[in-house]
């Protein structure tokens, strides 16, 4: 089996005000259906790594492959398209667009992808909302639902284009333990049933302990994986 | 990538509708700018047209006439004896020649065949006195073909009381200047005694009064049939002093006058040379209109610029997530540019409607003036050209106002925002 995401010798420097190497030659790969967490102290570079892997940060050296396709040096528009189709995101904050309905928020990435008709996309979006048990909220505005529900809607949005990998930056960091558990269960279900991979940056020991693999980082390097 | 992306338009629309009040205020700026532009330009050009029409419509495009002046060639120049010498002649007097236009009939016949000419009317101009009891008033009587004058030079617009047709059918009739009629306390239907400079007298019936709007003219000028004027001057049917030309294209007037001077050796003056000041006034008034409207639109543009900048600052997280989920910089830029353009388009459309209604209102307002007897309301020009210029103006301004902020929005780095919180 080939890895979904593969990174070789990733290096990144900040020059502010003196040159600091924040990622020091990292190698990493994620297999299909694998649930991986990245842990480490604040400032160890784990979020930086995630944003490099997400294709949003292009200021790095090294090689990056998503489903076998090389991403380093790709044009911004092509990266936007790849991110749209192959990567889903969940952040610590939900980042739902406040003017739009819950349903529309979930639909937007698929409308951008433009492979299906609006009716099909709406149908898919309802499916995802049902999967996350927030289908009742579909027609409410994004600002009218609770925090836990918002995060689940954000997960539905990440899933809408059936991405190969879902990346999370502290997705449970803002949730109480009950909602955090719920999010974890959903993630577990996605990996086991949809064979999608998950790469989650987290501080939460309990959360990480339950994942398939933990990547430990310190000072811009991987110490164990 | 299509210029108008349905999805991006939808997002832009949702953003605008979520802030109705703010959007409305931004649009109102454009509405005001465009509305004022339409009102000003319609009213200004309407007024321009009226003022120009006052002179230009009733002035011939080319006037051919005879002028009393000294001979250009003095007899001494033809004498072989003094051929190579300098000639110094004192006190040259004008040559005694007829006022009759030489070759008048031939020129008229030739010009009637010319394709550039819309029409040509002869006039007989003669000095007269209006006699009322013991008083004699100086005057000027022009004999003409009244129906042709009405067709070509809108003569009927200046007739108050009576009709030009009444003159056409009557060889003993006169259309008296309103100032003359007032001074002699005469009315339509009365008779006036005319004395010509060579002493002959005629009693003519007043069939109409003539009011040009220029008091000095109305106090002196009167009109009658060409035959009447020829009779008063004691001349025959081939006598006329002026030929008035109306051309299809007014721009050809200067060239035509030049041509006539060269080929017939007559005096010919074109309308532009005779009335240069009108052109200047018109172009300056137009310039003021456009300058004021442009200033208003710039103010509206700054309003849009401000509101978009604020909106983008507020929407940073939304922009970041849109980019994270695969919207490109260009997409984000267009979302905000569309918003500016929508504000511009809606504002301009309402502005045009508002401008139209207001100028319609002005065109219905009563406006009476001595100078313009046939005008009863304010003149307004409803040329659709101004409405097209208005909307293009508005779209360009809002595009420019929206361009910088939306480019800034497109350049936002999502990582900075997503990591920052």
Structure overview:
The complex is a heterodimer of chains A (225) and B (421). By secondary structure, chain A is of the alpha/beta class. Chain A has a single domain (5-224), classed as Rossmann fold, CATH 3.40.50. Helices cover 36% and strands 27% of the residues of chain A. Chain A has helices spanning 46-53, 76-86, 102-113, 118-131, 147-159, 177-194, 205-209, and strands at 5-15, 19-30, 35-40, 61-66, 69-70, 87-90, 165-169, 197-201, 213-218, 221-224. In chain A, the strands form 2 sheets. A 6-stranded mixed beta sheet of chain A has the order 6-7-8-3-9-10. In chain A, strands 2-1-4-5 form a 4-stranded antiparallel beta sheet, with helices on one face. In chain A, strand 9 and strand 10 form a beta hairpin. In chain A, helix 4 packs across helix 5 (147-159). The radius of gyration of chain A is 17 Å and the shape is globular. Chain B has helices at residues 6-18, 20-57, 104-113, 146-153, 164-168, 178-183, 215-218, 226-233, 253-264, 271-274, 276-314, 316-324, 329-364, 384-411, 414-420, and strands spanning 62-65, 117-132, 135-144, 159-160, 173-177, 191-196, 201-210, 221-225, 242-247, 267-270. Chain B has 15 helices and 10 strands. Chain B starts with 5 loop residues before the first helix and ends with a helix. Chain B has 2 domains: 6-56 and 278-420, no CATH class; 62-71 and 96-274, no CATH class. Chain B has a 6-stranded mixed β-barrel. In chain B, strand 6 (191-196) and strand 7 form a beta hairpin. With 421 residues, chain B is of the alpha+beta class. Classes of the chains: A alpha/beta (225), B alpha+beta (421). The A-B interface holds A 47, 51, 54, 56-57, 76-77, 80-81, 83-85, 89, 91-93, 95-100, 108-109, 111-114, 157, 169 and B 7, 11, 14-15, 17-18, 317-318, 320-331, 414-415, 418-419, 421.
Mean pLDDT of chain B: 85
Q: Quick one: biggest sheet of chain B?
A: 6 strands, mixed, barrel
Strand proportion of chain B, as a percent range, falls in: 15-25%
This entry's quaternary arrangement is heterodimer
List the total number of helices of chain B: 15
Q: What overall form of chain B do the CA principal axes indicate?
A: elongated
Give the count of helical stretches of chain A: 7
Spans of at least 5 consecutive residues with low confidence of chain A: none
Order of helices and strands of chain A: EEEHEEHEHHHEHEHEE
